[in-house]
Amino acid sequence: RQDVDWARVREDFPLLGRTVHGKSLVYLDSANTGQKPAAVIEAVDDFYRRHNANVSRAVHALGSEATEAYEGVRGKLARFLNVRADELVLCSGTTFAINLVAYSWALPRLQAGDTILVSRMEHHANIVPWQLVAQRTGATIRVAEIREDGTLDLDALRTAMTPDVKLLAVTHVSNVLGTVNPVREICREARRRGITTVVDGSQAVPHRAVDVAAIGCDFYAFTGHKMCGPTGTGALWARRELLATMPPFLGGGEMIREVSFEGTVFNDPPQKFEAGTPNIAGFIGLGAAVDYLQGIGMAHVEAREAELLAHLTGALDALDGVRIFGRAPEKAAVVSFLVEGAHAHDLATLLDLEGVAVRSGQHCAHPLLQFYGVAATCRASLAFYNTHAEIDAFVAALEKVRRLLG
Ligand code: PMP
Fold it and tell me: Going from the N-terminus, what domains does the chain have, and what CATH number goes with each?
C-alpha cells in the first residue's frame, strides 16, 4: 500500500492557506460544505475560458465539446459509484434529488393508509419532502428511532416495517452524529417486504468508497459540493425500471423529444428529468473532483479521516465538561458536542475569532436534537485535508474560549 503525502495533498487547497481574524484558518465545517482543490477550481475556470457553450443544443464545435465533457462527467460519477450512467439524473444536489423522488415517484403512488418510514437522524432534506407528500396524499410519516449512542435501533426499524410502509428514507451517514448506517442490511430487509428505499448519501460519498449497486437501494441521492465539487451539483441514482415509470418532475427544454400543442413526447431517462440548462461548469468541476478523489483513493481518504477522528475524539474526551453526541462504533469524522455552561453559538462565535470554523445550531436536523433534548450543538467536521496540528489548535482554542466564558 502506497502512503499518501497528506502535507502535499493539503497544498492542493488554496483556501486553507488563508487567515481569519489574523489567525491561521482551521476549517472544521466540511460536513456543511467541502473546500475545493485547485484542480477543481481550474477545471471550472478552463471551461469558461476555453469551452463555454450550452449542452445538447448546438452542432458547432464548442457545443459538442461541452456536451461531451458534461456527459463524460455522468460516466465518471457512474464509475465512481458503480452504477450505470443512464441511471444517474444530474441535478443541483441532494435536496433536488429527494424532491424529485417525492414528486415523481411518491406523490402519484401513495395514498391514505400508506406509511413513509423515516429515521430520527435525517436531515430536513430527507424529512420535509415526505411531509409535503404526506399532506397531499393522506399518507402517514412514521419515525424509526435511534439509541442514545446515535445508532439506529435496527430491531425497532424491522418492527416498524409493517405492510402499510411503502417507502423508507434513511441516511447513509448522519451529518450530526457521524453514524454510518448499515444501509445494505436495511435495504435488504426493506426489499424483502416490498418497501422502496431512498438513501441519502450526502455525507457518505465524500468520505468513503460507495458502491451503490451493492447497497441494493432503489434511490440514492448525493451532493457535489461536499465532495470537493462546486455548489449546485449532485445527482439522483435510481433503478432504471423506476425511472421508466416516473412522470417528469419539471418541464422544459432538454427533457423532451418532440413538442406540439397537441402533446409532447418526453425524452428517455435520465434526460427526461433534466429540464433546462444545467450547471455545466459546475459538473465539469465535479468531474475534476471525482478524478482528484480517485487519485488519492477513497480507502485512503476513509483511513485518514478515521485517524483524525480518533485524535479529535480523544482530545475532547480528555477535557472536563464536554459532551459528545454520537458514539456509533462505525462513525464518520463528524463530532457534535457541547461544553457545560456554554451556549453553542457563543462557542462558535468565539472560536471563529481564534480562526476556527465550526458550525453551531441544529444542523438541519431539529427532530434529532429534540431526541437529545438540546436546542443546539457545536459541530466540528473533518476532511482528509485537515491535520493533527489543526485539531490541537482547535482544542487549545476551545479551552481558551471556555475560560473566557467563565
Ligand atoms: N442530507 C444530508 C445528510 C446533508 O448533510 C445535507 C447537507 N447539509 C443535505 C442532505 C442537503 O444537501 P444539499 O443542501 O446539498 O441539497
Answer: 6-30+297-405 (3.90.1150.10), 42-294 (3.40.640.10)
